[in-house]
Amino acid sequence: RMKIKNSNFFELDINKINSIKFENKFDYIISKRSIINLKSTNQQLKAIENISKLLKKGGKYLACESSANALKNINEFRKFNKLAQIKKPWHNHYIDEDSLKKQKIKNFRLIKIHNFTSGYYFTSRVINALYSKLKNKEPKNSDLLSKVGWLINQNLKNDFSQTKVFEFIKL
What we know:
Layout: E1 26-32, H1 41-52, E2 55-66, H2 68-80, H3 97-102, E3 108-114, H4 118-134, H5 144-151, E4 163-170
Parallel strand pairs: 1-2
Antiparallel strand pairs: 2-4, 3-4
């Protein structure tokens, strides 16, 4: 385990964090691909509400999760180009950004959604897939066009970032 001065790291069951008592509130809570493993939007929103209770005033929650909205955008472009729909894994419930934006939690707000991989996902899931179809081959993440997706401006095509960081603040 890495040791960082003035930092604590915990691995917890996101469904049980409400039942754990901590001595202090936290400045930051970070989760990665945790919320999407809950079975419903209601469970996701409840987990986020429980996380909010663990933060200090001014504390932030950063959730790196997959977006249902971005997957829908990708699939609309794929459909237009007669490409097969991309399905999310059966065990994931991608974040519904509209529900997240409407959520009302006392003294807790979603302040930003970071679309940090839009260029990559548009290039790899649409352009590379279309090029591969024209060449009659299966697209791969190792294809040159997919690699180029990491090098281009990630805001070139907005809201295709299937993986996003949802940034919340405790008021």
